[in-house]
Amino acid sequence: MSIIRFVNVNKWFKQLHVLKNVSLEIAQGEVVVVCGPSGSGKSTLIRTVNQLEPISDGEIWVIDQNVADHRTDINALRADVGFVFQHFNLYPHLSVLDNITLAPIKVRKQSREAAEQKAVQLLERVGLAHKKDAFPSQLSGGQQQRVAIARGLAMEPKIMLFDEPTSALDPEMIGEVLQVMKDLALSGITMMVVTHEMGFAREVAHRVVFLDHGEVLEQATPAEFFSAPKTDRAKQFLKQILSPMH
Amino acid sequence: MQLDWSSIPRASNALWEGFQFSISLTAFAALAGIILGTLLAMARLSSIKPLSMIASGYVNIFRSTPLVIVIYWFYVVLPFIIGRPIGAEHSAYVTFAIFEAAYFCEIMRAGIQSIPKGQVYAGSALGFTYGQNMRYIILPQAFRNVVPLLLTQTIILFQDTSLVYVLGATDLFGAADKIAHRDNTLLEMYVTVAVIYFVISFFLSRLVKHLHSKIAIIR
Ligand SMILES: Nc1ncnc2c1ncn2[C@@H]1O[C@H](COP(=O)(O)OP(=O)(O)O)[C@@H](O)[C@H]1O
Ligand SMILES: [Mg+2]
What we know:
A: alpha/beta, binds adenosine-5'-diphosphate, transmembrane (chain B)
């Protein structure tokens, strides 16, 4: 049974056809990596899952609810779907702890004590318990992104979405964030990850989806996709990504 | 010309009372104006067209009309609306709150627009409603970003409250004006109140400068 299901999804920005008849299913507990050239629609695709980006037509079913249906309680659904952004988007006016506890307290109506206890556990999990009273501006990019992941996990989501979580980071910080994501992948949560980190895909992804010009051109296991891409465009893309120049 | 400063100390009680009214009028108009202005700013930025049109109409009307006319205007119109005489002081409270809201609206609008879109997305993605996003994420940051502008506007507001003397209200300037005419010490009185307005405005603007460097959120 799939937990995310795209059915003939189309998306236009004015005249620009950004998602073209996308159909895609992601099973519960699956880790799916989405890759493709810049501008191919990866961000748009992943943002449609929780309707940060509304779609033009088609259906997207997430945890058995059609997100495009106006009767769906989209805020309740979003609370069950974590989203990690390329640029972290932590709240600069709040401490690390408050960044993490705000939504559990205000959306989930948890008590402050319960939310803080959980937040500290999550900070330990991402290796940042000692930073709980720091402000985002006092953290490195890699630390901010780990806090952002903890913030998402604090809602105990059923699905975690990642949009290029390491591409805004200095190279020496990519590893620490990927490590947190790998641990998470092994915990059994459903993950949809837009990334060009092919090492991550090889190690923990169950499936790789290749997007080009808004179309899903290939879907395969990482082993298949990396060793024997079927389309020329995927071959070309992999050549660029894996070249030492990159 | 012979100046007689001896009447100033004797006038200090009356000046003090006028001063208290000026301050409470300023404080009330700033507080109410900021609250109303924030609501107007949210309306102006709303995607609901009629709402944003009403808000921008409001702002344009008050920003294009001289304050002294608005003061008279409300003084005449308000009794009709509430059905009984309202008095110069109450009329001044209402007028300044409504008039200043137009200016505070523009400041808060700039503040809200200064917050990156990603902040809203982050809140929405966690399940925040529009109201929660505003209350916990956008407005606290927007407000902090514009505190210096809000205070600067409040200093202007404090000076502008002297216009209520046209209604015969006894604010600081009104009190001074009355005594000046009674004792025939026009110049002495006007100089004295000018110094008071200057000292307060000057130190408040120094405070603004000081706050500016302390309060800005580091990104
Ligand atoms: N808000 C927007 N308005 C108009 N065009 C957009 C908007 N967001 C993205 N696009 C366009 O849609 C296409 C896909 O963008 P995006 O989903 O960000 O691609 P990717 O994440 O794969 O780089 C690009 O051509 C981009 O310029
Ligand atoms: Mg992108």
